[in-house]
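REQUEST ID: PR-0412
SUBMITTED BY: lab tech R.K.
PRIORITY: routine
TASK: structure prediction, single protein chain
INPUT:
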Amino acid sequence: MRLDQKSQTPPRRVEGFLPAFSVTLIASFLYALLPAQITLGPLWVLPVIMPPLLLTVALLKKFGKRLGAHYLGHVSTAIMTCFIAYSLILLVADVFGGTGLASSMLRASGILWVMNIIVFASWYWRLDAGGPMARADRGKHDVGCFLFPQMTLRWADAKPWIPHFIDYLFVAFNTSTAFSPTDTAILSRWAKLLVMAQSIISLGLVVLVVSRAVNII
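STATUS: complete
OUTPUT:
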């Protein structure tokens, strides 16, 4: 007896969005801890606008509005990026202008360093191979811009593997600590540019800002 084709198709492993949304919410609340003189607007703006945005993305995804969820997710990450970029510029201006307090510089640099990891991890996660929903549709990760170690193992073809948000967060963390990816190869030009940008920002925060604050102390 011939089996139904549908029954032979393995169930699609869909990645949950909770880790990505939770980390993004943490980043938005961290922004409220920055010194007021380097924030874009009042301190409460980002923590107030991000939860409704993420909730809307989740609802769109739940009700099958995939395209809307896809683009609104990009908008939420772009908003976070703009807030961080604005604060980075003002922080650097304070450092070279010598107008900021050392304690404030240290706190701001630490917060922005963490937010830098989260934002770039979000971009890697959203852009690589079309995003999480597109990766789940393919059922395996073979066209991405990041070559994860799991993709090179012998059982990779027999047991398809798909990266989740934590995998991209790990890449972003390594980039900000070692200033380069450690176990994951970067394949595409746009991904290499993003990794370079993240490394430059992290290097600036760790070397320039922190050293300047220590000299003031």
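NOTES: The CA atoms of residues 2 and 188 lie 43 Å apart.
REVIEWED BY: pending
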